[in-house]
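Sequence in, structure out.
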Amino acid sequence: MKFRSLVIALAAALAILGGSTQAPAASASALTASDILAKLAVSPEKGSEQYDRARFTHWIDADGNGCDTRREVLIAESTTTVSVGAGCALTGGSWTSPYDGATWTDPAMLEIDHLVPLQEAWTSGASGWNDQQRKDLANDLDFAGSLIAVTGSVNSSKGSRDPAEWLPPLEQARCAYATNWVLVKLRWGLSIDSREKAALSSVFQGACGSAPVEAPSVKVLAPTSFKPISGVQRLAGNDRFATALAISKQYASGVPVVYVTTGLSFPDALSAAPAAAAQGGPLLLVSPRSMPAVVKAEIKRLKPKRIVVVGGTAAVSSSVYSQLRSLAPSIRRDGGADRYATSRIVTERAFAKTKTAFIATGAAFPDALSASAAAGAQSAPVILVNGSSRSLDTATRSLMKKLNVSSATIAGGTGALSSALAASIGSYYSTTRLSGTDRYATSAAINGKKFSQAQRVFFAVGTNFADALAGAAFAGHVGSPLYVVPATCIPAAVSTQVKNWGTTGFTLLGGSAVLGSGVAKRTVCATSKPPAAKPKPPAPTPKPKPSPSKPGNPGDTKNCSDFKTQREAQKWFDTYYPHYGDIARLDRDNDRRVCETLP
């Protein structure tokens, strides 16, 4: 049976025993409940619409003795000896519920209260944790104030309310309750809101707030305890693999997972960034047929519990997979028949339940990458679809139903996801489209809508995917926006947003050849003036030669994969565009440059 240290403040013990609630004055060096309250960060609650209790795996059998967390609490808190039978059936116990003073001998009449409700924990900071950390909180047997056996009906009346909305009906229990509340929040680094603080301050008036308390050990959340930065930080290496490595080094050893994908093409990789953010691990890049030695060394340093390889054998070969197998206790491959199937598999395995999902085209990377950090910050997925489709495909619809999605955010304009597809998505879910005139404006639109403030923001070049991919996993994990920007400046909309937020930390992903000093200095991009109208040519004398004949309509017969180089694709596009427009839909972001991922 797992040992539980019963740490009870003196005032609380006296209250439960029915004795005097007058506690001795604290010594000069002792901490009081009021001192603990003053240590807690005050911040508005956020993310309640994304809360899902399933994200907190609870009532586990941590020590494998056959008794789950609930029964461990009942055994520890019984005032008489409990007999433990087969299947951890409990007999002979007696429990006094501290919230109402009722005594019970039937454990079925009791519920185990998470003193700080799980939804309250989520909105106070746990939304930014990984699933393992939420699991640890939900099963915290090492501090007695975390989990309490109480009368079931009283626990139901409490629900997810904080002390501004609910206190125990037994008045003598309120000091102990408020004291344990601030101790649990201190232990797990959770914030309080202003109303909550006012209510706790009221309880701590007089003897309750001045009594000495024993603070619990602070739970170290190493993978998410990233130090805030001020000024400009650049995370970069000699190439895309080294840049991803520099980003990964921001994580402490002992991460729950490392995601690994190809660094040479984007389709399979796009959904991996929000998955890695939600799971609490970095995203590293490899070549399809080889793994750089420095990447192998970094994975050894990280000591992950699991490695997830994203994409099929064409993206990450079997030989690379075999090398990775020796670097973690567990490994799996998330790969499907195409980029869309891979996206669905990654999403289904990384997210148990989610109320919201981002939808992006799988044909281009900028919109999905901007959405990835925003999605990761909300513990939401980015699901790739064929943007030219006229309706939501059955497989994606089935996945979103399984995840319990109720709202969808479309990342990108009608050139990325058709109006017909948006209408189809809107017929199933509450839908919002976030887009702009180009990839940079779309990035600003997504972040401006999904973030209300940001101490830190990330910048990645918008013309290549690799740096932004690894960066999106990190940005999402620390709850920060990622903007795709030009190489030499930042758009005016981005400049306005970071000024309004009072942002003080700026992380550039990639070296100075990728993001120049103009981005580091946050130089605003010049607004281009429309070209002057061409003067009408004089009447030709003699009569000019006739224009070349109009080429025949080739129809929608080309994909980017049909061309060897971007120049070849551009030449084909320029031949037919003046006559038929983007007939083959090669220009996904409507900037007159096609197939931008080709060499």
